[in-house]
Design brief:
The structure holds three protein chains of three kinds. Chain A is an alpha+beta fold. Helix content of chain A is 44%, strand content 13%. Chain A has helices at 19-31, 48-51, 59-85, 98-124, 161-169; strands at 9-16, 37-40, 148-153, 175-180. The longest helix of chain B is centred in the middle third of the chain and has 34 residues, at 164-197. In chain C, the strands form 14 sheets. In chain C, strands 5-4-17-16-15-6-7 form a seven-stranded mixed β-sheet, with helices on both faces. A four-stranded parallel β-sheet of chain C has the order 11-10-9-13. A four-stranded mixed β-sheet of chain C has the order 24-26-25-28. In chain C, helix 6 packs parallel to helix 25 (782-790) and helix 9 crosses helix 14 (375-387). Chain C is globular and about 90 Å long. Classes of the chains: A alpha+beta, B mainly alpha, C alpha/beta. Chains in contact: A-B, A-C, B-C.
């Protein structure tokens, strides 16, 4: 927990009971110049991430490249085994039986790209992450069922505990609470 | 603390039944299935039955390994029997899960969200059952298990990449892996919900562990949805390829009745057909027992029935084309094969197949049958049986009379063929009911999005 | 029905016996001695043994003759030695003198088939005989063997062989047996052997004959009886009818352009079948420039291998065959008395064409009758051959080859009556199993019980041993010294290849002891005998050569040209056709287990019978029409009643069977005799009587609905219009040389048709291929058994065969064509086709079956995981899977039989024909060491080697001079299922028939 020296707080958090209020609040906060924000919701809320300065991920490109790599790996495995390492006369077929190598190539392609997509996402999200300060907020347990939260983090230049708290209250949340580290 | 917190927000509803009015109720309802003191008697009964059936496998498999495949009815012309039939049958069933979760996701079919979780679970368990057969049917799986994988070994031997069975190895393992990952990724946010609602410590730890510390950050959701979309995009061609490859096991053979180019498409259609039937077989009782009427509405039954009807018609077209091709080919082998299927010693199996897979599903043209759970359930049973018969016809009637009449013979299954098949049904049942008991059987976070769509007209 | 002249002769013998018995206290032997001077006896002898009767007239040599006579009444004996001494025996040239590990030696010896020798070479690995081949130098083999000979190696290692002397069923010792037996003999010695009887099977062994003669002198009053259930009584009776004496007929098919077989399976039964089949096939093979074919007419009751080769086949009952024989005989001017005109019911056109054909082939034809045919038929056949001038040309008559020709049934009856009369104190049974195979009405067992001491020598404990006080285990013919005469009298030495596995005795050992030659090893006995024959100045070299070649030159029976007696006396009912619905029962030896002696041989039990394709069981074979009339169904039990005897047997409908004839094979339903024999099939001897040992007319059949599954290896009989077996007539072939690839057969693709780039796989070294001549294959299954012996193929048992899991690497497909009642029968041996585009290889996930550089479709057992995909994808269905652990890994003795060059397969492994790759490798090694290329014919596959008709040819198709290349160049060459572009290396020569235009054109 590297912020500990700087402040005992991770940030200030506002609680809402529906996504629309959250999005509105997020936009307002961003407009107010806050940049180190995060919003928490029990379901994906469209436009929310963009509202708090989400940058496009390059995951799709990574997936594509790994897929390509899979394709090459798959076909070269077939080719190397059947033509170079141990060529055998199997049913009079040519050593390089191209069409027969396609299914394996295809499956390996899918395998590589799918794994990349899944684990790439987790890594990009920094998961698994057993501890996070926001869990210290009493109501946050309901962030996974029916409550919505907006958190301004202490790292933000504009962050000032009282100032920020007041600002959030101005967005008529159900409640504002301080997030301890 | 503020007043607003007392009265939960109520958006209007369209996708869900009237009972589901708030995020709270959704979460309560679905997690209630797991976090309950009163497991319905139905669950215990089903589990017990499953456990009973499982003995077929627990006794049959060891005996098979001890004695060899001779305990089955296999013989010289008919080298493949129930093992391969069951393998294809299970794989086919498995496909519905992926199709529902992936294809319908790509098509933005919101209604899928109520059923995709269970369907995916079904996929995984079905593939697990299926995967046992190719190994068991060698009678010496300890060899098959590792010789089928290409790895550098002391014999300097490699697998034969020209063999459809190797394609199977790659296709099925890839399919199982990807399905598992897709399923788990989908489960992560719901595990988080469970983690946060769990009262007992162990549950908290376990679900906490499974949820990977998910906290619903907006950034996470963004990447999460992207990844899900990519996975869906990848799973769709995958599921098509898997059953195509399975059909290659036959299509690349030279046996009349196997050597057919139409197999891949009509196997895939058959998979959808069988898969939806199995989904309904499972969901209709669960819907009743756990009162999930708000999640699995008549609309769901209706849509799934329509999918079955459509894929059923494609399958019927496949059967028809088999006949046309056989006659049109002018090949005496093909023509005899078709005659033998319809009028040979296994003729009544063929006509039973036509009844189950073509005749009976036509009832689905009528809205009454599509919406009536009991009727629908029984129609699904016909389809489950029919799809098994389809594989029986393909495997057995093609093999038992091929090229040289001198080698023609009949196939007589033994009790051990049946025992191991029933055993896998038991295994499937057990796994599925364990899943219901411990996992969110409906994707909670996706259901929530349905609720949300309410006020975004 | 014994024809008159027979019964007359019997009467005289009876007279003789009466005279003896009337002379109270007078002993048979001495009385014979006296009788020898009486006229009747002289006459009797004149008729029986004229050539020796000359000696009789000469007082000087009379003693020799009496010695001979004495021998025939002598006793068996036993040898004192308990361990076979390891004499040096002489290996065949083609193998090195001294044993090199991994290099088999080949020895020449002879196989006793109903007492008659068939020359064989035995492959021995480090002292273990493992495989039997035909001996090219032996007249009864010429290199080929029958399936029965092939399988005899298994009897040697049969785990059920008896291994120790037994007394009253309790294990005993040889010495305690000796004490008892010698004591008994001593008592008999006092009585000059009056209470002694010895029962043997047919004896042709000259050495045994000599010993018997000496024993005859020692125990003058003893009697020697001979009995085999499947005997040549009718033949002997017939030749006595025709020539008034015993003659031995030897056929020379290599000179015959026309053959008529009256119920004779000459190509597949009898000691000379391999030779006969070889010569016969050679005359009808349209290859190597030969353009002519012989013609075969067959009239038989139940379809046989020979019958399926016929150009014209008639299905006739026994009486109809008699009538046909008479009809032909009369047409050829043979005079007979007893019956006048008869009608066989055979198509007039058929018979007249046959007769004119015979007339136009004088001296170039053979007429032959089956052993079971009535004496009259045999007599007529003799006369017909004489009338056609075949005698001396294609049919050679000679003195009998038996030491003592005898009518076995009479001999047995005499013994039984003696036993019933309590005249027998000590009975020595050398081989045979009379308790099982004697006619039921003789009650042999009851009579036997009246004998004080009963001694039985046999390979394994059987029904008879159970009824005897002493059971002595017999040595297998590969364990003991001996000698045998072949069908033409040529003698061979029986060399042992291995010390007896157990403490066993040979018949020769017995006789030696009784002839006071105890301790003389078998080798000495045999050698001394032949030395005494003074056949060659330098006996040492002669003997060595004889052992080496497997034949004793100059020992052939003397050829005779006797004259047929004036008119042949036929029985009153000869050729008299029975009423419409009278059913005839025919008891015949099983094509595989024979009279039951091979019943414990798993290979033979499981080998499909040539026509019925049944295994493990016998069944009442009936024609479709008869089945319809009597409401009989396949695999349903029916009660057969002949006279007072009944038997319930399953029914099997056989197209080509004569109507109203039920054929039931002997040799099954053994009560005792080993795990394999016991409980398989039904004991047909329960229907045989002394009067009608081969069955007879008036069979009652009561069908029932009780199921009895029969293990048939081929369920489907029609070719379904598929061009698998292609055949035509010689005429059509001459006008349309390319018929094999025309019309319906025209769908074979061109050889260069391919989607693939073939440059990857050029077969430019050796390229092995095989061709099978369907024109001469008779479906005898010798190849199949040879393959089983060579390649360690397991026996799977009836239940597995029922489930279609037989393991044969080469099977013979049998198809019927034409009408159901008179079908044509075609055979097609199907080994692995060794396809160049093998469908099986492509689908194997672990590359357990791949192609060799020489084009072999190799099976890698230790790589196989058992997916069975290859078997599914093999359009020829030649792959065999070990569904269970079929190989017997328990029985130690069976391990000795296995071919060390061939892997023994375990459970879960696929296997199939390898073209005998071990033999190919052996040849390759030899070629490498000698620096020469592998010559054509240097590699001979097991099936090719065994095939009596030389229908299978293997070789290098890249060598244009090799036989296989030459035959594949023939217009008759074709492959099956080539439209699948499998490019099979095994191809076929289309079958050709040579029908008589007079019959075919309507």
């Amino acid at each position: 927990m590297h912020h500990e020296e700087e402040s005992p707080y991770h940030g200030v958090m506002a609680q809402f009971d529906n996504p629309d209020d959250l999005v509105a609040a997020a936009k307002a906060t961003y407009a107010a110049g806050y940049r180190k924000l995060d919003a928490y919701s029990p379901l994906p809320v469209h436009g929310l991430a963009d509202a708090i300065g989400y940058k496009r991920t390059r995951l799709p490109w990574l997936v594509f490249c790994m897929g390509l790599l899979g394709a090459i790996a798959g076909y070269s495995l077939c080719y190397w085994v059947s033509v170079i390492d141990y060529p055998m006369n199997i049913g009079g077929r040519p050593f390089h039986s191209g069409p027969s190598f396609i299914p394996v190539t295809f499956e390996v392609t899918i395998l590589f790209s799918a794994m990349t997509a899944a684990f790439g996402m987790l890594i990009a999200n920094g998961l698994p992450q057993p501890y996070h300060p926001v869990f210290n907020v009493e109501n946050f347990a309901r962030a996974s069922s029916d409550l919505f939260f907006l958190c301004i983090e202490a790292e933000d230049e504009k962050f000032d505990l009282d100032e920020t708290t007041r600002f959030l209250q101005s967005l008529n949340p159900q409640e504002v609470s301080h997030v301890e580290n | 603390m503020s007043e607003a917190a007392k009265t939960p927000y109520k958006p209007p509803v369209n996708e869900l039944g009237p009972g589901q009015t708030s995020y709270t109720s959704i979460t309560d309802k679905i997690s209630g299935v797991v976090f309950t003191k009163h497991t319905p008697i139905f669950w215990f009964v089903s589990f017990a039955i499953g456990f009973l059936l499982l003995h077929g496998l627990m006794i049959g498999a060891p005996y098979l390994l001890y004695e060899g495949t001779g305990i089955w009815g296999l013989n010289n012309p008919v080298g493949w029997g129930w093992a391969i039939i069951n393998f294809v049958w299970w794989i086919g069933i498995g496909h519905a899960g992926t199709l529902i979760s992936a294809v319908l996701l790509l098509f933005r079919q919101k209604w899928r969200t109520s059923i995709n979780r269970a369907a995916e679970a079904m996929t995984i368990f079905a593939v697990l059952c299926a995967a046992q057969f190719p190994l068991l049917h060698t009678g010496r799986p300890w060899l098959a298990a590792y010789w089928l994988l290409p790895y550098p070994n002391s014999m300097a031997m490699w697998v034969n990449f020209r063999s459809p069975l190797i394609w199977d190895v790659f296709a099925v393992t890839t399919y199982l892996t990807v399905s598992l990952v897709f399923w788990y990724v989908g489960l992560v946010p719901d595990f988080a919900s469970f983690r946060d609602r769990a009262k007992n410590r162990i549950a908290q730890v376990v679900y906490g562990f499974l949820s990977l510390g998910w906290r619903g950050s907006a950034f996470h959701w963004e990447r999460y949805e992207l990844a899900s979309l990519i996975l869906a995009g990848l799973s769709t061609p995958l599921v098509l390829s898997v059953h195509s490859v399975v059909s290659f096991d036959f299509a690349t053979g030279i046996i009349p009745g196997w050597h057919t180019t139409i197999f891949p498409p009509y196997f895939v259609a058959g998979a959808i057909f069988a898969g939806f039937a199995m989904v309904l077989t499972l969901m209709i009782p669960l819907r009743r027992v756990y009162g999930l009427y708000d999640f699995i509405t008549e609309r769901h039954l209706n849509n799934m029935s329509k999918v079955m009807l459509a894929s059923g018609l494609i399958v019927a077209y496949g059967y028809f084309m088999e006949i046309v091709i056989a006659q049109y080919s002018g090949s005496i082998w093909e023509m005899y094969m078709m005659r033998n299927r319809m009028g040979g010693p296994y003729g009544n199996y063929y006509w039973a197949l036509i009844l189950c897979n073509i005749a009976v599903p036509q009832l689905l043209w009528f809205r009454h049958f599509r919406l009536h759970p009991v009727w629908l359930w029984f129609i699904c049973q016909f389809i489950n049986v029919g799809m098994w018969l389809e594989r029986f016809i393909i495997v057995v009637t093609s093999l038992h009379r091929d090229y040289l009449p001198s080698s023609w013979d009949m196939f007589h299954p033994t009790i051990w063929d049946a025992a191991i098949y029933i055993g896998t049904i038991g295994l499937f049942t057990i796994l599925f009911f364990l899943f219901i008991r411990g996992f969110p059987m409906i994707s909670i976070h996706e259901i929530r999005t349905l609720l949300k769509t309410g006020n975004h007209k | 029905m014994m024809p008159d002249i027979n019964s007359r002769k019997q009467l005289e013998l009876a007279d003789v016996r009466d005279r003896i018995s009337s002379e109270s206290g007078q002993a048979y032997w001495r009385s014979l001695d006296e009788l020898a001077q009486t006229d009747e006896f002289a006459q009797l002898v004149q008729r029986e043994f004229p050539e020796q009767a000359d000696e009789l007239k000469d007082p000087v040599t009379r003693r020799n003759f009496l010695k001979l006579m004495g021998a025939s009444f002598a006793l068996g004996g036993l040898s004192g030695c308990t361990i076979q001494p390891g004499e040096k025996i002489v290996p065949q040239v083609r193998a090195p003198e001294d044993i090199i590990p991994g290099k088999p030696l080949f020895y020449a010896t002879a196989y006793p088939q109903h007492g008659v020798g068939t020359g064989i070479l035995v492959e021995s690995h480090m002292g273990r005989p493992t495989k039997i081949e035909g001996n090219p130098l032996h007249p009864a083999s010429r290199g080929g063997t029958s399936g029965v000979v092939q399988a005899s190696i298994l009897d040697l290692y049969d785990p059920d062989r008896s291994q120790t002397v037994k007394n009253g069923g309790r294990i005993s010792t040889w010495s305690s047996f000796l004490d008892n037996f010698m004591h008994q003999l001593g008592l008999q010695g006092v009585k000059e052997g009056a209470g002694l009887r010895i029962l043997t099977q047919t004896v042709t062994s000259p050495t045994q004959g000599a010993l018997l003669a000496e024993i005859g002198k020692k125990y003058p009053k003893a009697q020697w009886h001979q009995y085999e259930a499947v005997n040549r009584d009718n033949y002997h009776a017939g030749s006595s009818l025709a020539y008034g004496r015993h003659v031995n007929a030897v056929y020379d098919f290599s000179k015959a352009d026309l053959v008529l077989s009256l119920d004779s399976d000459f190509a597949n039964s009898g000691p000379a079948s391999a030779r006969y089949a070889r010569d016969f096939a050679a005359k009808r093979r349209v290859r190597d420039g030969q353009k002519a074919m012989n013609r075969l007419y067959v009239a038989e009751s139940s379809p046989t291998a020979t019958g399926s080769l016929a150009d014209h086949r008639l299905a006739l009952g026994g009486k109809a065959i008699e009538a046909l024989a008479l009809h032909i005989a009369q047409a050829l001017g043979v005079s007979s008395q007893g019956v006048g005109q008869v009608d066989s019911g055979a198509p007039a056109k058929w018979v007249s064409a046959l007769i004119s054909d015979l007339k136009s082939h004088r001296g170039r034809s053979i007429v032959t009758a089956g052993d079971a045919a009535s004496p009259g038929v045999h007599a007529l056949v003799h006369a017909i051959n004489a009338a056609l001038g075949n005698v001396g040309q294609t049919v050679h008559l000679s003195d009998p080859i038996e030491v003592q020709p005898a009518l076995h049934m009479d001999s047995l009856q005499t013994l039984v009556s003696a036993m019933d009369a309590g005249q027998v104190d000590l009975l020595v049974i050398l081989g045979g199993n009379p308790v099982y195979d004697a006619p039921i009405d003789l009650n042999f067992a009851d009579a036997l019980a009246k004998v004080d001491t009963r001694v039985h020598l046999s390979l394994s404990e059987n029904e008879t041993s159970d009824q005897c006080h002493w059971h002595v285990p017999e040595s297998h013919y590969l364990e003991a010294w001996g000698d045998l005469r072949s069908h033409d009298g040529l003698a061979s030495i029986v060399q042992p290849l291995i010390e007896p596995l157990y403490k066993t005795k040979s018949a020769l050992d017995f006789l030696a002891v009784m002839a006071d030659k105890a301790g003389t090893p078998g080798l000495e006995l045999v050698r001394q005998y032949w030395e005494s024959q003074a056949l060659d100045a330098n006996f040492a070299t002669y003997w060595r050569r004889a052992l080496h070649d497997g034949v004793l030159p100059g020992t052939e029976a003397v050829k005779r040209t006797p004259k047929v007696v004036g008119a042949i006396q036929l029985a009153d009912d000869f050729g008299q056709m029975p009423e419409e619905d009278v059913v005839e029962l025919q008891l015949r030896p099983d094509p595989m287990v024979g009279d039951g002696r091979h019943a414990n041989n798993g290979w033979l039990q499981e080998t499909p019978r040539p026509i019925t394709k049944l295994t493990w069981d016998n069944a009442a074979l009936v024609s479709p029409a008869t089945a319809l009339r009597l409401r009989l169904q396949n695999e349903r039990l029916a009660e057969l009643r002949l006279g007072d005897n009944t038997l319930r047997v399953p029914v099997w409908i056989v197209p080509g069977q004569a109507d109203n004839v039920v054929t039931l094979h002997l040799g099954f339903g053994r009560q005792r005799g080993g795990r394999v024999a016991e409980g398989s099939g039904f004991n047909a001897y329960l229907l045989s009587t002394a009067q009608q040992p081969n069955g007879g007319l008036g069979l009652q059949i009561n069908p029932s609905f009780d199921q009895y599954p029969l293990a048939c290896t081929q369920e489907h009989h029609s070719m379904e219009g598929r061009s698998l077996v292609r055949e035509s007539s010689l005429e059509h072939y001459k006008s349309h040389p390319h018929f094999v690839h025309e019309g319906w057969y025209a769908h074979d693709p061109p050889d260069d048709l391919t989607l693939y780039n073939r440059t990857d796989h050029q077969y430019d070294g050796y390229a092995w291929g095989m061709i099978i001549d369907l024109g001469s294959c008779m479906g005898c299954n010798a190849c199949s058994i040879a393959c089983q012996a060579e390649n360690n193929i397991p026996v799977v048992g009836k239940s597995q065969v029922l489930n279609g899991r037989e393991m044969a690497w080469i099977r013979i497909d049998r198809y019927y064509k034409g009408e159901l009642d008179d079908p044509g029968i075609v055979h097609q041996p199907v080994p692995c086709m060794q396809c160049e585009n093998a469908p099986c290889e492509v689908v194997c996930p672990v590359a357990a079956t791949v192609h060799s550089a020489e084009g072999l479709n190799d099976m890698v057992y230790n790589r196989c995981v058992g997916t069975r995909y290859c078997a599914n994808n093999c359009p020829y269905k030649v792959r065999r899977f070990n569904f269970l652990l079929y190989t017997d890994k328990e029985s130690e003795s069976l391990k000795l039989q296995r071919n060390p060059d061939v892997t023994v397969r375990s459970r879960g492994v696929m296997e199939k024909c390898t073209y005998c790759v071990q033999r190919i490798n052996m040849a390759r090694i030899e070629a490498k060491t000698s620096g020469k290329d592998i010559a054509d014919g240097q590699i001979v596959t097991a099936c090719e080697q065994a095939c009596p008709t030389e229908s299978i040819v293997f070789g290098n198709i890249n060598d244009p001079q090799s036989r296989v290349s030459r035959y594949k160049a023939s217009e008759l060459n074709y492959g099956i299922l080539t439209d699948l572009n499998t490019r099979p290396r095994t191809t076929y020569l289309a079958g050709l028939k040579n029908p008589n235009p007079e019959i075919t054109e309507s």
